[in-house]
Amino acid sequence: MKSEPLVSVIIPCYNDHKFINQAIESINGQDYKNLEIIIIDDGSDFETKQVLKNLTQKNIQVLYQENQGPSAARNKGIKQSKGDFFLTLDADDYFESSFLGKALGIILYNESIGIVSCWYNTIKNNTIQEVIKLEGGDVNTIIFSNGASGNSLYRKQCWIDVEGYDEKMVDGY
User: Fold this and answer.
1) Contact present, 44 and 16 (Cβ < 8 Å)
2) What's residue 32's pLDDT?
3) Is the distance from CB of 61 to CB of 80 less than 8 angstroms?
4) Is the separation of the CB atoms in 85 and 95 below 8 Å?
5) Secondary structure class of 79 (helix, strand, coil)
6) Is 0.90 topped by the overall pTM?
7) CA 102 to CA 40: how far, in whole Å?
8) CB under 8 Å to 4, separation ≥6 — which residues?
9) Strand partners for 116
10) Cβ within 8 Å of residue 126, ≥6 positions away
């Protein structure tokens, strides 16, 4: 495996013109830098399309589709990705700068690990309301007990093995 593998950041975006730049800034601020960013406009409104149209960063690719929900948007982005790993990030969320470096260190350390998730904060009026500490663990915990955040680092091969996100889950869960 390459010493600095490419990580593809997959950002489904639906009417998130107020938040998308903060999401991108959180990726640009990561301590790990070998990244491509793929934003999938999932049939957004005019304001969001204008924000996306004005993005000029070289490592950003914007894809467009009619509204099909986050599962279809993620699948579309991952199919276009070049990395062996992908990081999912909702357009209205963001990561702390050390997340990707730490997560990649974990996933590279053990080939049996397919996903690295994180705790997360709920925020209202720029104030942390609650820290959510997910359990993580095995597949059953992650799937049936909500043991992982939707914003996580994955091995692309795991996504291939399960044939992608279930696009019948139009709300993403």
Assistant:
1) yes
2) 96
3) yes
4) no
5) helix
6) no
7) 26
8) 32, 34
9) 153
10) none
Q: What is the pLDDT of residues 72-102, one digit of tens each?
A: 999 999 999 999 999 998 898 877 888 899 9
Helix H or strand E segment including 24? helix 20-28
AA identity, residue 148: A
Residue recorded with tokens 């276009």: 80
The model's pLDDT over 38-56, given as tens digits with 9 standing for 90+, comes to 999 999 999 999 999 999 9
Q: How far apart are CA 88 and CA 152, in angstroms?
A: 6
With beta carbons less than 8 A apart as the criterion, state whether 36 and 103 touch: no
β-pair partners for 41: 13, 64
Residue that has been written with the tokens 């990244």 in this structure:
35
Strand partners, 132: 120
Four-point Cα dihedral 77, 34, 29, 56, nearest 10: -60
Strands lying side by side in the sheet with 60-65: 60-65, 35-42, 7-13, 85-88, 153-155, 115-116
The rounded distance, in Å, linking the Cα atoms of 90 and 73 is: 11
Q: What are the pLDDT digits (tens) for 6-31?
A: 999 999 999 999 999 999 999 999 99
Distance CA 126, CA 108 (A): 34
**And the tokens for 76?**
């579309």
